[in-house]
Amino acid sequence: MAKHEMNKSVIYKRTPLQRLGTVGKWCLILFFAIYTLFPLLWLFITSLKTNAEYFENPFSLPAALQFSNYINAFSQANLGRMILNSITVAVVATFLNVMIAAMAAYAISRFRFKGREIIFALISAGVMVPLNALMVPYFTIFSKAGLLDSLNALRILYTAIGLPISIFIIRGFMDSFPVEIEEAAYIDGCGFFGRFFRIVFPLTKTGLVTAATFQFITCWNEFVYANLLTSSPESKTIQIGIRYFTNQFTTDYVSMYAAIIIAIIPSILGYILFQEKVMSGLTSGAVKG
Amino acid sequence: MKVRKSDKIGIILFLLPALALFTIFFIVPIFSICYMSLFEWNGISAAEFTGLSNYKAIFSDPVFLRSIRNNLIWAFAACFIQVPLALLMALILSTRPRAWKFFRTVYFFPQVISGIAIAMLWSAVFNSEYGILNGLLRAVGLESLSKNWLGDPSTAFICVLIYGLLYIGYYMVIMMAGITNIDETYYEAAKIDGANRFQMDIHITIPLIRYSIVTCITLAAIFGLRTFEQVYLLTNGGPANRTSVVVLYLYNQMRDNSYGGANASSVILVLTGAFVIVLIRKLTAEKKETLEKAR
Description:
The complex is a heterodimer. By secondary structure, chain A is mostly helical. Chain A is built from 16 helices and no strands. Chain A is globular, with a radius of gyration of 25 Å. Chain B has one domain: Orthogonal Bundle (MetI-like fold), CATH 1.10.3720. Chain B is built from 14 helices and two strands; from the N terminus they run αββααααααααααααα. Chain B has a two-stranded antiparallel sheet. In chain B, strand 1 and strand 2 form a beta hairpin. In chain B, helix 2 packs across helix 14, helix 3 crosses helix 8 and helix 11 packs antiparallel against helix 14. Classes of the chains: A mainly alpha, B mainly alpha. Chains A and B meet through helix 2, helix 5, helix 6, helix 7 and helix 8 of A and helix 1, helix 3, helix 4, helix 5 and helix 6 of B.
């Protein structure tokens, strides 16, 4: 695993050049870490200050912790409702997406029928489509279906646009275990659906979880279509909600920062808890492809 | 598995939902933007066939040209700044320095947080009155350099562009996964031949993760062409359309009920994306051939 471990086993004196290399290496490592963490930390600290304190010195520590900013964010911007909306959208869209993708991946991965590779290639190519370019047709579809300003529009859209990557990921996992198990089950009289639910589903759990992680995070973070397709406060998601405190007249900065923190805390917590899953989920399309 | 008669219905039932959704949300929309880009349509009254006039209109619109130029700069910068930096850090973290897992976790943070939250965060950094950047400049006595970063035409685009380029975690993790798959024996052999770290990186690691690198370059280019949130939030295209990008342009066209122009710019975006993917494939495939010839 450790690639250059053997460097350490060789005992030799380090030249000045190598020492410089070590210093440079750590400068880079720390630079990127600070670059990522400092603004987040600053945001968190500032979200606990008063606006007056913030205007006076953006780097000071709060004299007293203003948890009222968070209460403000929840009560004024109605973030609670938006978080609930985001959760139901992400949960439904993830469940439907993974179910539908797993079914399609099963059919494509396990059975040799005419056109299966064409179907797979076509669907996989969907990953490359810049979905932001399809705003007009998506808007038209949902306005004709009478689903504008409805969370169902987002649920359906997210389910659909996540299919290419999910099918791609899940098929990869399904391809990796042998057909013989299913053949045996078939001989024992297990039908199509029985094999899918009792054998393939449990065996591809890792793949399903990977795809679900990717899908959930994407849904939770989606902004463009949530912004385009919803308008009333009842159907806004959290990503739209964090803009509540900015308008053309005034900006309540500290409450806005509190709202941003509220919006990103679930992502960060989930990430820290399921780190490896999240990382492999978000990069799996690229790593396997 | 062979298709048995009893499985046929199952297969069709299992493929149907995915194919239906794919048709409605991928195939039909792509045909629809191509077809509708030939019509003048305000979203309410009947569409009127106008041939290529929508394309003529957007290509003679300086804002569109500026937008597409910005997107290309964006994609180019991502390929030639962000990906190489990610490669460098992947090489460094793959030597497993102290706490490398911690740093990998940290670098990946921005990938997990929504683009909109990150954009809001950076609008706080660049804020002219209360921003971190001007605050830092004041703190070190360089107040003369402080300015309205996002309002000044000379700095707006670079500010909107640059902050994301230094988030390297995504590409780094992809390339690190490639590096872990390399067979240990290559390095042992190189070590015996007296190669140093740098030589091993150049002659073993980089050629062996070529595939991951190409993937990262492709993704970087595609993401560069799709950019929207950052610009929409930080500058909304301003000042004077300096920072506009194609998706923002089409969004604004749509808002102005000029659906023909919006569709035409969508088509250009999809085509540019396809062209870039093919181009990268071609360029990198050629490299492989010359590599083989060199042997």
